[in-house]
């Protein structure tokens, strides 16, 4: 049984400047979500970081909220939390696959996201994984986001501006791109 296995866990990273994470939770199963959030908050605070918390209706909305926050705010990273319990229909596969895929795609674009959306067969599995004093998957998701933030800061290159370069625009008729008025 997985609950009895021992897993290696990286030590939390150290930061020379504050870290701010957004915790996005789908509290569809409120008691489980509350445990996930408690674990995530404690992990962020353990490195001296701060967090904001927002709730969304379900696991499918978690990636959208993170995408909106990334475009409109200044978070260093994100923690995605929620729980999807298998039911009688294929909706379970859709929610699990689509939420996970969206988070992974944003991660590949450079967002620092820890995925703590539980995908389980039954409530008992969810409770075991969510408990902050147990498997603490919320804390694990926060730790993953923190490790990615640490890597992004380590590899940050001020010489490499990934954003828009205004000097790349050339005005018609001016070789240097400047108006010779």
TrEMBL record:
(2S)-2-hydroxy-3-oxobutyl phosphate binds at residues 88-89, 129. 5-amino-6-(D-ribitylamino)uracil binds at residues 28, 59-61, 83-85, 115. Pathway: Cofactor biosynthesis; riboflavin biosynthesis; riboflavin from 2-hydroxy-3-oxobutyl phosphate and 5-amino-6-(D-ribitylamino)uracil: step 1/2. Its EC number is 2.5.1.78. GO terms for biological process: riboflavin biosynthetic process. The keyword Translocase does not apply. It catalyses: (2S)-2-hydroxy-3-oxobutyl phosphate + 5-amino-6-(D-ribitylamino)uracil = 6,7-dimethyl-8-(1-D-ribityl)lumazine + phosphate + 2 H2O + H(+). It comes from the Bacteria. It is an enzyme of class 2 (transferase). One of its GO terms (molecular function) is 6,7-dimethyl-8-ribityllumazine synthase activity. Keywords: Riboflavin biosynthesis, Transferase. It holds the Pfam family DMRL_synthase. The keyword Nucleus does not apply. GO terms for cellular component: cytosol; riboflavin synthase complex. The active site is at residue 91. Catalyzes the formation of 6,7-dimethyl-8-ribityllumazine by condensation of 5-amino-6-(D-ribitylamino)uracil with 3,4-dihydroxy-2-butanone 4-phosphate. This is the penultimate step in the biosynthesis of riboflavin. Belongs to the DMRL synthase family. This is 6,7-dimethyl-8-ribityllumazine synthase. The lineage of its organism: Bacteria, Pseudomonadati, Pseudomonadota, Alphaproteobacteria, Rhodobacterales.
